[in-house]
Structures are given as structure tokens and as C-alpha cells.
């Protein structure tokens, strides 16, 4: 009787995810390779888990109460009153949203446009040339692949990435891909200057000496991630980037006109619309940790789209996997009896390795470091 029941049971749906991931990885052609091959149905590795629903939180209407702040940096170096206003705006945005956009930030529009074009040139060159850069070696200064967490995340994102570690150890020019070499060097220099200015403003917003955050090397590392999101034939089944927070002190994002970036705010997914000439700035986990939750590292995601390709350039201020040995913990000047430390000390590399091992699974890595 038992045998008959076993024989009658339906066969389980055999799905060898690991083999499919490896087959995709071995092509070294990324998501763009699938699109170039003419896929009309996305492979199962990209399907969101059944428990994930886009309707978990509604995306809000475009009303003023749900628009991330746009802060104008014009004149902050010369006008004391203007600087004070900007510091207040940065403080408010960092405490409530964890996100804001900046205009008149000092990086010329021509540099921004050429950076986006350089990323497109890299991805749209011959696949065989790109394969030279394809690697999963975390210590490589230049690494192209699809999904840093390919083998650990619950679903694969519809996105390819070129990662270039531009500080503290800048690669030799010849190590950078030719289609975006010159602009990567120029853009990284300019975004580093902006980052240093942002950390001064954030220090002031915390009531600290303007040099405090730069003094503890928050701007020591710069990792530039050049993302390419091909047009997706079934955007309702996947995401461009899963819900996550950044393992950085600060991220400065250049996005193109396509859109798709959303931040989780008051349990709603809010669009961060592209603003011509603007850069998106967001607080990372490491800044939330050292400010003892004063500044908020907000969860965000990128939805997939039939439009595209979408290009974005995320500049992460952190030393990533470099073994610097520097320990970070909540800043003592911000602590009191009523505000004791909420996190244990950690190195940046330990934090980043933990996040990579965990993958983008929709949960915060900060929980692991809470006291």
C-alpha cells in the first residue's frame, strides 16, 4: 500500500539552480548576453522568490510629502548663511530619508554625460573583449561580472556590473577598460572631491568638527560600480537590484534618464526621479553604524523595465575588501547615558565580506553587528 502511494505521488519539479547559475556565469556575457541572444522569457534564476510581492508596499503617488529632498550646493563655500541652511537640509534628509539629491555640486554636466557614455561604450563593445575583465576575484582592482552575490542571493538581478577600485590604491591607467578609461579617472577625481565636501557637511550636521569624518578616513576608499540594466522582456518577474542598503559610509549615484530607483520610506516604495545634472546621495550602513542610528541607511531597489538599457554609476565611499585593520564603532562624541552604543566595532572588510556572504536577500546586514 505504501509503495502504491509513493508511486502515485507527482514527481517533484526538478530545478538545479546551482547548475543554471554556473552555466550563466560561465558564459561571461552577463545579462546583456541573454538580451543579445534574443531571449523573450527570462531564465528561472532571475525569478523572484514566491514570497516576494511587488504589492507588499504600494508605490506612492508623486505628491510633495513623498519627494526626496533636492539640495542646492550653490555658494556653500563662500556664503556662511547658505552653508548653514545646507547643513540643516543635509541633517534633516540624512535623519529622515537617508537619501537626497544634490545640484550645483561642482561636477560639470559634460563630465556626468561622458561618464554615462563611457559605461555604455564598455558594455556595448564585443563580448570577447569584455570577457578579459570578467572575474569573481574580490581583490581585483577592475572586475566585470553579473551579480556580485550570484551564488548566495535568493534570486539573480537583471543587471551587469563593472567595479573599479579607484582609491586608496588607484589602478594603473592601462588596467582600466579603454572605452571608459579617461572618463573613469576624471570622474573619480571629481567625485572624491565632492565626497570630501559631503563628509564635511555631514560632520557639521552631527555637531562635530567639519574635519571629523574625513579625519577617521571615511573618504579613504572609493569603489565605482558601473551598472548596466538591459531592457527586460518580463520585468514583472524580477528586479534590477533587490531591496538592500549599501555597505559604504556614503554613496554618490549618477543615474540616467530611464528611472527605476526607489527608496523605502514610511513603508512605501518612493520613486527617485532622474533630475538633469543632479547626483543622488545616500547614507550607507557604515555611516549609520558610526552615528549610532542618527543617520539612516535606507533600503532601496531598482525595478526592471522594458525600457533600456539603463545605466547608473554608484560611487561607494569605503575600502571594501581591503584589509586595512581600522576598527569602526559609534562615535564617542555622539554617545551619552541616554544614547549608549548600539553596535559592536568592526572593520570595513569584515562588514563587506559578511554582506557578500549573505547576499542581497532583503534583510539588513546591520542587524548582525548590533549589540
Topology:
Layout: H1 2-8, H2 17-27, H3 30-36, E1 70-72, H4 80-96, E2 99-103, H5 109-123, H6 127-130, E3 142-145, E4 160-167, H7 181-205, H8 212-215, E5 222-229, E6 239-244, E7 250-255, E8 261-265, E9 268-271, E10 279-283, H9 285-290, E11 300-303, E12 310-317, E13 327-328, E14 346-347, H10 348-358
Parallel strand pairs: 1-2
Antiparallel strand pairs: 2-10, 3-4, 4-5, 5-12, 6-11, 7-10, 7-12, 8-9, 8-11, 13-14
Helix pairs in contact: 4-7, 5-7
Description:
With 371 residues, the chain is of the alpha+beta class. The protein has one domain: Sandwich (Jelly Rolls). It contains 10 helices and 14 strands. The protein has helices at 2-8, 17-27, 30-36, 80-96, 109-123, 127-130, 181-205, 212-215, 285-290, 348-358; strands spanning 70-72, 99-103, 142-145, 160-167, 222-229, 239-244, 250-255, 261-265, 268-271, 279-283, 300-303, 310-317, 327-328, 346-347. Strands 1-2-10-7-12-5-4-3 form an 8-stranded mixed beta sheet. A 4-stranded antiparallel beta sheet has the order 6-11-8-9, with no helix packed on it. It has a two-stranded antiparallel ribbon with strand order 13-14. Helix 4 (80-96) packs across helix 7 and helix 5 (109-123) packs across helix 7. The N and C termini lie far apart (55 Å).
What characteristics describe this protein?
371 residues; alpha+beta; eight-stranded mixed β-sheet; four-stranded antiparallel β-sheet; 14 strands; globular
Amino acid at each position: 500500500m505504501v509503495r502504491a502511494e509513493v508511486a502515485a505521488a507527482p514527481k517533484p519539479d526538478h530545478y538545479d539552480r546551482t547548475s543554471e547559475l554556473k552555466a550563466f556565469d560561465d558564459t561571461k556575457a552577463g545579462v546583456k548576453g541573454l538580451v543579445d541572444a534574443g531571449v523573450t522569457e527570462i531564465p528561472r534564476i532571475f525569478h523572484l522568490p514566491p514570497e516576494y510581492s511587488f504589492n507588499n508596499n504600494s508605490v506612492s503617488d508623486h505628491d510633495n510629502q513623498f519627494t526626496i529632498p533636492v539640495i542646492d550646493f550653490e555658494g556653500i563655500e563662500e556664503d556662511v548663511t547658505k552653508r548653514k541652511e545646507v547643513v540643516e537640509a543635509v541633517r534633516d534628509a540624512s535623519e529622515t530619508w537617508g537619501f537626497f539629491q544634490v545640484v550645483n555640486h561642482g561636477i560639470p554636466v559634460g563630465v556626468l554625460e561622458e561618464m554615462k557614455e563611457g559605461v555604455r561604450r564598455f558594455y556595448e563593445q564585443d563580448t570577447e573583449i569584455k570577457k578579459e575583465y570578467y572575474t569573481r576575484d574580490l581583490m581585483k582592482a577592475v572586475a566585470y561580472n553579473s551579480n556580485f552575490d550570484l551564488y548566495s542571493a535568493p534570486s539573480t538581478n537583471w543587471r551587469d556590473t563593472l567595479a573599479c577600485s579607484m582609491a586608496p590604491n588607484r589602478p594603473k591607467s592601462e588596467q582600466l577598460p579603454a572605452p571608459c578609461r579617461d572618463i573613469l579617472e576624471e570622474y573619480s577625481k571629481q567625485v572624491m572631491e565632492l565626497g570630501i565636501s559631503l563628509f564635511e557637511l555631514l560632520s557639521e550636521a552631527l555637531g562635530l568638527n567639519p574635519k571629523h569624518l574625513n579625519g577617521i578616513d571615511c573618504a579613504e576608499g572609493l569603489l565605482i560600480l558601473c551598472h548596466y540594466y538591459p531592457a527586460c522582456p518580463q520585468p514583472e518577474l524580477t528586479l534590477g537590484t533587490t531591496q538592500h542598503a549599501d555597505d559604504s559610509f556614503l554613496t554618490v549615484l549618477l543615474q540616467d534618464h530611464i528611472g527605476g530607483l526607489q527608496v523605502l520610506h514610511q513603508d512605501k516604495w518612493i520613486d527617485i526621479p532622474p533630475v538633469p545634472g543632479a547626483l543622488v546621495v545616500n547614507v550607507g550602513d557604515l555611516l549609520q553604524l558610526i552615528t549610532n542610528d542618527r543617520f539612516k541607511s535606507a533600503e532601496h531597489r531598482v525595478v526592471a523595465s522594458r525600457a533600456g538599457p539603463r545605466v547608473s554609476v554608484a560611487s561607494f565611499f569605503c575600502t571594501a575588501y581591503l584589509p586595512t585593520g581600522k576598527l569602526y564603532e559609534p562615535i564617542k562624541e555622539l554617545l551619552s547615558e541616554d544614547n549608549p552604543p548600539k553596535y559592536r566595532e568592526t572593520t570595513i572588510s569584515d562588514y563587506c565580506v559578511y554582506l557578500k556572504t549573505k547576499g542581497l536577500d532583503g534583510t539588513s546586514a546591520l542587524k548582525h553587528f548590533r549589540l
